[in-house]
Design a protein that fits this description.
124 residues, mainly alpha, two-stranded antiparallel ribbon, 4 strands, 57% helix, Lycopene_cyclase_dom, transmembrane, Lycopene cyclase domain-containing protein, carotenoid biosynthesis, intramolecular lyase activity
């Protein structure tokens, strides 16, 4: 069993978490909302994958870099981790762009704002 792909996905998720923490975009801004959003997104895409597998549209390819562990027939565990990465990355990009637009709104002081909102007096 190879763990290269799963390891690369885990490393990438770790990198996203570091960015998230640094800029307080998702989990470090609102952990409950972020967790719900990621779970819903991953479940949606897993259902999409299962539908594609049932209809014969998708098929699992063999690779020496994958673990061989499966969540269901033809559905490797790496797929769920990849979908988590995809959803988390999309959420972080969305939050970053949303905050950037909000900071440029008239009457806002972008110098004294963080990704999780305005700074308090102690943080300024």
């Amino acid at each position: 069993m190879g763990f290269a792909y799963l390891g690369a996905l885990a490393l990438s998720l770790g990198g996203l978490a570091v960015l998230d923490r640094r800029f307080r975009l998702a989990f470090w801004a609102d952990p409950v909302r972020t967790a719900i959003t990621l779970v819903v997104g991953v479940l949606f895409f897993l259902a999409w994958d299962v539908a594609g597998l049932v209809l014969g549209i998708f098929a699992r390819g063999d690779s020496p870099h994958m673990t061989g562990l499966q969540l269901a027939p033809e559905l490797p565990v790496e797929e769920a981790v990849f979908l988590t990465l995809l959803c988390y990355n999309t959420l972080l990009v969305w939050r970053f762009l949303d905050l950037r637009v909000r900071r440029r709104a008239p009457g806002r002081d972008p110098v004294h704002e963080r990704a999780d909102g305005p700074r308090s007096g102690a943080d300024a």
